[in-house]
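Hi everyone,

Forwarding the result from last night's run.
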Amino acid sequence: MTDAIIVQRLLLITAIAGAIGYERERHGRAAGFRTHILVGVGSCLVMLTGIYLTELYHQTTDIDPTRMAAQVISGIGFLGAGTILRSGTSVRGLTTAASLWAVTGVGLAVGAGFLMGALVASAILMVALFGFASLERVMRKEQ
């Protein structure tokens, strides 16, 4: 993997995660622009590191680059749980927790070079966050 590919992947996840984080920031959520970028870039870097180690040691030992990624997925649950607040019967922060988890997946995909999957998933995430907020308000009023 070349340095240019590494930089390209890290910059791509910065843009994707930043856009998703911007939507959360607009709504005044605790995990906003910077948090989403940090999570996305961190998960991308973990995946890149797994791939790098696989390439580096492929002659001497078996290395599974997905093992590090699996730990990222479990660890993000801790960060996501910190964004969920419960007050009486009301629960806030579920969408932010879910967006952090999704950005982690996108970061791992970008890091692995699965760019089409990352871009399509990102488009779906953007539509869900930016486009469906008004639809969700309408659905709540109908109840």
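Residues 115-142 form the longest helix (28 residues).

Cheers,
N.
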